[in-house]
Amino acid sequence: MASSINRMSVVLFLAMAAAIMLTTVHGQGTRVGFYSTTCPSVETTVRSAVQSRFGSDPTVMAGLLRMHFHDCFVQGCDGSVLISGTGTERTAIPNLSLNGFTVVDDAKAQLEAACPGVVSCADILALAARDAVVLANGPTWAVPTGRRDGTVSRAQDALDNLPGPSDSVESQIQKFTDRNLSVQDLVTLTGGHTLGTASCATFNDRLFNYQGTGGPDPSIAADFLPTLRSACPQNNNGAARVAMDTGSQNEFDTSYYTNIRNGRGVLESDQRLWTDNRTGPFVGRFLGLGGGPNLNFNAEFGQAMVRMGNVGVRTGTDGEIRRVCSAVN
Ligand code: HEM
Ligand SMILES: *[C@@H]1O[C@H](CO)[C@@H](O)[C@H](O)[C@H]1NC(C)=O
Ligand SMILES: *[C@@H]1O[C@H](CO)[C@@H](O)[C@H](O)[C@H]1NC(C)=O
Ligand SMILES: *[C@@H]1O[C@H](CO)[C@@H](O)[C@H](O)[C@H]1NC(C)=O
């Protein structure tokens, strides 16, 4: 009897230790409602800052979502993308939503007035990205908070760590698995391209002389090529922008997956997700085409965003709470 109780307590102890280890090993320690007593207005303040900007410029949704992704992939989700100045991450990313930066700055100013020194810039960005998706008629999800801000922001880190539009599927998978995100997370999160636009500079190489062939990328659908070529004529300066989800760039939906299935992907990295046998089945499952149980894009996206939002986070006494989001204290 005594020994079985002992055994039970050992088992219990091991289970608890394992649970504690799991939470620390994944660098988490963020939780939903982290500010519920210290700054209860945080969610409504961020939401209204996003909403008011959205009224004058709906492209801000895509900007905020992309900024949170970039933040998480470079130095972890620590607000480092928001720091301005020569040689910072911000300077490495072509035309990263200026609009998005000012939304975060607005929310931060209001929160500093209400509860000084409490809410991190990294958390404001994570909340704003969720609110942006909601405004685009996408899903909502509970955002764990408690991230702290980092103090390092280097352009070179952004260049080294961010996936690029010509990346192979192999390289995309590697960049996600390096951050404990799965192949399914890759397909789900790049579904963020249901919103927003890409500049011609990011896919010009596909249109006229793909890999020195003197012709277009053969994976572009024949009836889509003229659309891309007229938006981005030969020898353009790269600045014009094209919806990544043709016909539905302001609506959060699965038509991005339908487009890549039909050879109507704009970025080469996106188009490849359909043809590769590791990623293609997930695209098929979002579209209910078989290859495994159907996947619900809205539900999966929220869960994957929570996982992405935990990449490399600083919690506890690590990092700082920045006073202004564009500069370290
Ligand atoms: C393999 C991964 C990815 C690659 C290679 C990639 C690449 C790109 C590129 C090249 C652009 C166009 C940039 C420009 O020309 O201004 C873009 C835009 C965008 N990306 Fe990604 N991306 C990836 C993953 C993600 C993820 C995980 C998200 C969010 C969850 C995301 C959200 C966005 C959004 C919303 C835009 C539109 C921005 C706007 O219209 O202002 N991307 N991405
Ligand atoms: C990924 O998980 C490993 C082990 O669980 C952990 O050591 C590492 O810090 C995590 N990486 C990131 C970027 O969160
Ligand atoms: C960024 O925006 C500026 C001004 O709108 C434009 O001149 C430039 O070509 C853009 N760069 C890219 C890579 O889209
Ligand atoms: C994908 O195809 C390659 C080459 O045909 C094969 O070796 C590999 O096992 C396949 N992988 C999956 C996940 O189906």
TrEMBL record:
Active site: 70
Cofactor note: Binds 2 calcium ions per subunit.
PROSITE patterns named among the record's database cross-references: PEROXIDASE_1, PEROXIDASE_4
Annotated binding of Ca(2+) 2, by residue: 194, 245, 253
Reactions accelerated catalytically: 2 a phenolic donor + H2O2 = 2 a phenolic radical donor + 2 H2O
Protein residues bound to heme b: 193
Signal peptide: 1-27
Cysteine pairings via disulfide bonds: 39-115, 72-77, 121-325, 200-232
Alphabetically ordered keywords of this record: Calcium, Disulfide bond, Heme, Hydrogen peroxide, Iron, Metal-binding, Oxidoreductase, Peroxidase, Secreted, Signal
Entry's localization field: Secreted
Entry binding sites for Ca(2+) 1: 71, 74, 76, 78, 80, 89
GO CC, any one term: extracellular region
Predominant place of localization: secreted
Domain Plant heme peroxidase family profile: 29-329
Entry keyword annotation includes Glycoprotein: no
GO BP: any one term: response to oxidative stress
Binding site for substrate: 163
Annotated site residue numbers, Transition state stabilizer: 66
Enzyme Commission number, as recorded: 1.11.1.7
Cofactor: Ca(2+); heme b
SUPFAM superfamilies (UniProt xref): Heme-dependent peroxidases
Annotated function: Removal of H(2)O(2), oxidation of toxic reductants, biosynthesis and degradation of lignin, suberization, auxin catabolism, response to environmental stresses such as wounding, pathogen attack and oxidative stress.
Name of the protein this chain belongs to: Peroxidase
Organism: Linum tenue
